[in-house]
Amino acid sequence: MNKIVIVGAGQAAGWAVHTLRNQGYAGEIHVVSNEDHVFYERPPLSKQVLSEEATLESLNLFSIDQVDDFCVIWHKPDHAVKLDKAQKTVHLESGKQLVYDKLLIATGSRARIPVSAWSSMEHVYTLRNIQDCQQLAQHLKTAQRIAVIGGGWIGLEIAATARKQGKDVDIFEYGSRLCARSVSPEVSDFLKELHEKAGTHVHLDATKLHLIEASNKQVEVFNADSSLPLFDCVVVGAGAEIAKELADLAQLEVKDGIVVNEFGQTSDLDIYAAGDVAIHPTLGYCIQSWANAQNQAIATAKSMLGDLTAYQDIPWLWSDQYQANIQILGTYQPEQTKQVVIRKTDENQISFFYLNEQHQLINMIAVNDAKLVKLAKRWIANSKQLDPAQLQDINFNLMKLK
Ligand SMILES: Cc1cc2nc3c(=O)[nH]c(=O)nc-3n(C[C@H](O)[C@H](O)[C@H](O)COP(=O)(O)OP(=O)(O)OC[C@H]3O[C@@H](n4cnc5c(N)ncnc54)[C@H](O)[C@@H]3O)c2cc1C
Q1: pLDDT given at position 306
Q2: Range list of β-strands (E), 307-348
Q3: DSSP letter at 313?
Q4: How far is the CA of 310 from the centre of ligand 1 (A)?
């Protein structure tokens, strides 16, 4: 094998390249990216980079020297538009055609705009990449009234960042609670309280939102027929669309994302997928998280070189909002949950444990307790049986349960 093509240059692509070279692969690596940046991570885009507490350079996954040493053949900015499985060729918008021995699709996802008319409004933003972040950060310098549409993780982080800058912030969530797809009702309540205590207005059940652009480009937001004072800036954080078109066109097996086995292989064994775009092999749906993109890509890159490495990581993601570092371990599975235990050490530190019938941990949300998350990863990996009374008792040292 002498030629690997990777489409995308985000978290998954970067770690795939790093792994390929680390494992001694000396052949060609072609990377196609429709952004003009080298491998970078996105989490700070809604946090420190948006507030300009961190620089754009801090987003780089690797140093300039490391990237040089990867000896990547770049095709950027360019867009992969077609995949010909039979000819093992990727067609680019520029007209280039790249023949591969093995292909990795790491195209991630993009921000979803639920109403297409909103895209043409000048002061309505989404946040997915560096360019989006620069534009939004620029506007936040002068805007005072901010509407955030979508009460998921990215929407809540943007709201917290803006509120910390002293902006007046309203969050509009379509559902009846925040982050409903990934956490339980009690965690949604915790999040709502966190934002309301900070002075943000949270509007739930906002199912009939209507936006009108005023002549000065401010935006009027109608929520269930009542209108609020004009907003200077609207940010839509209403979920992501999986960038799976290449696989769709090539008729690979695709559901909500690209179907892969535990080695990252798609229904065509020379084509792999990793990161947001790939369905998690054991959970059966796409996990959109930094750690998933990185670790699935590492395992997949090893498998591409013949060192079959199964990806079985327990999902883990984090979110920073105000003073709260929120870590989510495992997945929210209401049907499997037999007991919920809440451990509140103090005002700033609280953990939610979800146990199955055998008293094993299947999901945990920890606020400001990274050490406990590390330990809980071991509990899940070892299917440890836990005593709910000990979990709840703040005088019991959980570190004893190693
Ligand atoms: C604002 C923001 C904040 C986040 N915060 C957190 C967080 O706090 N914690 C956490 O765990 N996760 C967070 N995430 C999620 C995490 O960043 C993603 O899960 C991760 O970036 C996925 O990596 P990826 O490589 O799969 O995709 P991406 O990073 O999206 O990279 C895919 C790249 O492929 C390019 N591309 C797509 N199609 C083509 C094509 N046809 N041709 C060429 N190039 C193409 C895209 O433009 C993009 O550059 C956040 C995401 C965002 C946007």
Answers
A1: 96
A2: 316-321, 324-330, 339-346
A3: P
A4: 22
For atom 3 of ligand 1, the residue with the nearest CA is: 43
CATH code of the domain occupying 323-401: 3.30.390.30
Please list the ranges in the chain whose pLDDT falls under 70: 225
pLDDT of residue 215: 87
Phi and psi of 79, rounded to 5°?
-125, 130
The rounded distance, in Å, linking the Cα atoms of 388 and 92 is 55
Our answer on whether the CB atom of 33 is closer than 6 Å to any ligand 1 atom is: yes
**Are domains 3-39+61-110+241-304 and 113-236 of this chain identical in fold?**
yes
CATH top-level class of 113-236: alpha beta
Question: What is the CATH architecture of 3-39+61-110+241-304?
Answer: 3-Layer(bba) Sandwich (3.50)
Complex ipTM tops 0.95:
yes
**Cα of 276 from ligand 1 centre, angstroms:** 7
Query: In which residue are the tokens 């890159």 written?
Result: 301
Q: List Cα–Cα distances, 22 to 4, 5, 16, 66, 327, in angstroms.
A: 15, 17, 10, 11, 30
Structure tokens at 2: 């002498």
Measured from the Cα of 320, ligand 1's closest atom is 8
Helix or strand run (H / E) with residue 364: strand 361-367
Peptide bond into 77 cis (omega under 30): yes
Q: In whole angstroms, what is the distance from residue 205 CA to residue 188 CA? A: 13
